[in-house]
Amino acid sequence: NYYNYFTSDEKIQFQQKLRTTYLYSAAKKQKLLADMYLKHQLYVRALIAYQKLETVSGKLNAAEQIQVLYHMGLCQSRMFCFEEAKESFAMALRIKEDKQIQEAYFTAAYLAGDEEAFLEAGRRISFDEDQCKMIYQNIKEREKERKNSVYLTYLRYLTVDFKKGQSYPLKRAN
Predict the structure, then answer these.
(1) Which one of 15-24, 62-71, 109-118 scores highest in mean pLDDT?
(2) Are 62 and 36 in contact (CB under 8 A)?
(3) Phi first, then psi: what are they for 81, rounded to 5°?
(4) What confidence score (pLDDT) does residue 28 get?
(5) In 29-89, at which residue ranges do the beta strands (DSSP E only) sit?
(6) CA 125, CA 121: separation in Å to the nearest integer?
(7) Could you say which of 81, 83, 104, 127 is the most buried, measured as most Cβ atoms within 10 Å of its Cβ?
(8) How confident is the model at residue 141 (pLDDT cuts 50, 70, 90)?
(9) Nearest 10 degrees: CA dihedral of 118, 123, 128, 132?
């Protein structure tokens, strides 16, 4: 019995939003579009939309530029382009230092390569070597903990299925 996909309140909010969009600049509209793509995990489309924003970056304030660069880095890292993601995060950090962006930068640097490349990436954004080594070890330990917890969860499900007496036949490849 679904007549519309929106509730009456949502419909009113949507209509109000439509009425005010003509007041937005082209850059603001492009940013809203890119944010919507990112929210719905359409990373390629979001990245293209954010890249179009770079051409009109003079019309964005510093906070919006940081957010655009951060979101570009997120899109790139979700598409496994870690080197490009590092560059986007680094550009955002040049505008303003932010803990969330630093964490994203170090995560992309960790996923991009070995320990030496990680240390070099840390030096590029003015961290000393000891701090970088500590961050690298923390990320490595967190990764081990996560792998162990996933493995233990998997074993727990196997144990539950075994106790229930259920068996799952293996399919042969044709």
Answers:
(1) 62-71
(2) no
(3) -100, 75
(4) 84
(5) none
(6) 7
(7) 104
(8) confident
(9) -20
| H helix count then E strand count, the chain | 8, 0
Q: Rounded to an integer, what distance in angstroms lies between the CA atom of residue 29 and that of residue 52? A: 11
Tell me, letter by letter, the H, E, C secondary structure of the chain.
CCCCCCCHHHHHHHHHHHHHHHHCCHHHHHHHHHHHHHHCCCHHHHHHHHHHHHHCHHHCCHHHHHHHHHHHHHHHHHCCCHHHHHHHHHHHHHHCCCHHHHHHHHHHHHHHCCHHHHHHHHHHCCCCHHHHHHHHHHHHHHHHHHHHHHHHHHHHHHHHHHHHCCCCCCCCCC
Going from the C-alpha of 115 to that of each of 1, 30, 100, 129, 137, the distances in angstroms are 57, 38, 21, 11, 10
pTM metric for this prediction: 0.68
Q: Can you tell me the distance from the alpha carbon of 43 to that of 134, in angstroms, rounded to the nearest whole number?
A: 31
Cα-flanking dihedrals φ and ψ of residue 69, to 5°?
A: -65, -40
Nearest to 38 by CA among 25, 51, 50: 50
